[in-house]
């Protein structure tokens, strides 16, 4: 038996050898560029680097300056508001659209294309389009006033208190279609017998969705949440295209803070510190997902 086990080991190592060899460049790229770049960023976040990286360690000074900066605090607050609302509305609207599409409606392919089309646009294009739509001089406000409602006011991009909601509207318009498609794929994977059994038992449709269908779609929801959350953390293009962080710093986000300090203020140490905090945020998202998808499944097995 021992000899057979030893003989089997080389066979396992040689299995799919071409695929393993082909994956070596990608593995090296991930290790050198992504992992190496991440460690390099974290390392130099503890230095006083300005225009160029330098080994002048200052401990946690960069992080203390970071969290003492009103601009960074505003960026975190905006990200929290934008992230929570984006996650909730994307899931709710996307699932509702998917549930409607799952009713085998006419022209389903047409509607699905229409809803998914905005996702094909870049964030820059989306931001510019919604900058025009929300512009008070020729956007929604101007159109409504032109039909007689002269007191109507809808000017989110130029109002500091609600500017983040104007950005949220554009983000939902672009990303909800993708969520709808993911949810629709999950709904189409539900066995038809479950729906038949629910109808026979007289269970209302909303209860069937809430207590039977949604729990069965747990992997789809987890994957969708990770995709949405990763986009939330790195949101940048949409803000730059719509407001450039204004009015003032009222629509500042962490990714823009990092870019401005690294490439405009030429303060690499501060930019690296902000990047590291964004990395921590991503880790907080990825680690629970990895545990639920792999660790939890292994325990159940």
Automatic annotation (TrEMBL):
Localisation: Cell membrane
One BP annotation, GO: transmembrane transport
Entry keyword Transmembrane: yes
Domain ABC transmembrane type-1 residues, every copy: 76-291
GO CC aspect terms: plasma membrane
Membrane topology: Multi-pass membrane protein
Keywords associated with the record: Cell membrane, Membrane, Transmembrane, Transmembrane helix, Transport
UniProt KW DNA-binding keyword: no
Main location: membrane
Matches recorded under InterPro entries: ABC_transporter_permease (IPR051393), MetI-like (IPR000515), MetI-like_sf (IPR035906)
Membrane-crossing segments per the record: 21-46, 79-101, 113-133, 162-187, 208-233, 272-292
Signal peptide, first to last residue: none
Pfam family, one: BPD_transp_1
Family, as annotated: Belongs to the binding-protein-dependent transport system permease family.
Name of the protein in its database record: Sugar ABC transporter permease
Native organism taxonomy: Bacteria, Pseudomonadati, Pseudomonadota, Alphaproteobacteria, Hyphomicrobiales
